[in-house]
Amino acid sequence: MNLHEYQGKEILASHGVRIQRGIVANTASEAVAAAKDLTAETGTGWHVIKAQVHAGGRGKGGGVKLAKNLQEVEEIAGQIIGMNLVTPQTSAEGKLVRKVLVAEDVYYPGDSETSEFYMSVLLNRGTGKNMIMYSTEGGMEIEVVAEKTPHLIFTEEIDPSVGLQGFQARRIAFNLGLSGTAFKEMVKFVSALYTAYVKSDSSLFEINPVLKTSDDKILAVDAKVTIDDNALFRHKDIEEMRDVTEENPIEVEAKAVGLNYVDLDGNVGCMVNGAGLAMATMDLIKQAGGEPANFLDVGGTADAKRVEEAFRIILKDENVKAILINIFGGIVRCDRVAQGVVDAYKNMGDAINVPIIVRLQGTNAEVAKELIDNSGLAVHSAVMFQEAADKVKEVLA
Fold first, then answer.
1. What stretch of H or E contains 64?
2. Cα–Cα distance for residue pair 293/268, rounded to 1 Å
3. Is 350 annotated as a binding residue?
4. Where does Mg(2+) bind (predicted)?
């Protein structure tokens, strides 16, 4: 689950990480009120107006601007709220901005003593350890840094059974070229950041930039946070931060009915039970000359209701030209799935307007094939993988 910048900063602050303070606003007038409150609290006269969308590169699309007075705060907030923000990480249509973060300006005018760093915490799946990735090249896209100056990227791996050690935090501060008070502040920052990552069950914390001010304070100017969905049951407060308006609406609907669905860009819809079989089915579709339109795992209870819900979800994608149902009958019997397909097909009537290939293998597979073949519906049955692939190729021709 992705979070907005202001939400990620809330988590950071709750674990002792110094942040660029800010107040979220939904309208231009709220932005002015937020700016006044920040001035009273921090003394800042200038404010940074930041679009709150789940995408990086906001500044490049005009979603991050500096306001030097309250009139500019109102004007800029009014321009950003309601715009479709296009960044390198969005589609060509962009994302609708519904709110902004009004943040204090932490860059002192004419100050040349500040430094920007990059820092992220994530899981290294190759080693099974958490990893802090960091660089002196803050403010830049880490992909660009990796491509052009890979020697400026450092990593520190942390054994989750023992946690971040003091010498590791000190090594990070040293590699960033810090000394004195800034060195000590960075050690504290790294320790608090790692604690926030672990305690919130995150899969990613990315801070770009981490700022060293001229008076040697270390703070997070930005925060990109992704929470592990599988751990949300432990964090009801974080789960309440979910902004479904930022997510794919079809995926949101699928989640609401208990389906594991990921939207893709292909032309063949997939309905499968089991993640491994779903991946194999997607490969099968590509080998047949098609492109998978989705990943959809209906789970072990593929009854008529669940199959019908899966049909409705898949058919919301106008690019779908065929649907491949690939079920292995282990826990669930194939004949029950077949009956579910037939019932769902009849219930939906003309709503199903694309060819359907059904491959059922496992318990009662023969009975299931007879049910499909004798249903009188425009459903193509298959038993073997290759047979299913041939039928996909046939209906797409």
1. strand 64-67
2. 5
3. no
4. 208, 222
134 is catalytic: no
> Annotation-wise, does 331 bind a ligand?
yes
Confidence of residue 110 (pLDDT cuts 50, 70, 90): low
* Distance separating alpha carbons of residues 141 and 56, to the nearest angstrom: 9
DSSP bridge pairs for 396? none
Structure tokens at 131: 């990893």
Residue range 342-390, pLDDT digits in tens: 888 888 877 788 888 988 888 888 888 888 888 877 788 887 888 888 8
Annotated catalytic residue: which of 118, 194, 197, 261? 118
Q: Which of 74, 206, 308, 309 is catalytic?
A: 206
Give the mean model confidence (pLDDT) for residues 271-291. 87
**Cβ atoms 337, 300 nearer than 8 A:** no
Task: Give yes or no for a contact between 228 and 201, defined as CB atoms under 8 angstroms apart.
Answer: yes
The region, left, alpha or beta by phi > 0 then psi within -120 to 50, assigned to residue 105 is: beta
DSSP state of 100: E
Q: What percent of the chain has pLDDT over 90?
A: 57
- Is residue 391 part of an annotated ligand binding site? no
Tell me how far apart the alpha carbons of residues 151 and 135 are, in angstroms, rounded to a whole number: 9
- Exposed/middle/buried for 272, CB within 10 Å: 0-12, 13-18, 19+? buried
Task: Tell me, yes or no, if 197 is annotated catalytic.
Answer: no
Name the percent of the chain lying above pLDDT 70: 97
* Rounded distance between C-alpha atoms, residue 390 and residue 347, angstroms: 28
pTM for the model stands at: 0.83
DSSP-assigned letters across all residues of 140-152: S-HHHHHHH-GGG
Mean pLDDT over the full length of the chain: 90
| Domains recognised in the chain with CATH numbers | 1-20+109-247 (3.30.470.20), 21-105 (3.30.1490.20), 249-396 (3.40.50.261)
Inter-residue contact 22 to 103 (CB < 8 Å): yes
* DSSP result, 339-367: HHHHHHHHHHGGG--S-EEEEEEETTHHH
Q: Is 58 annotated as a binding residue?
A: yes
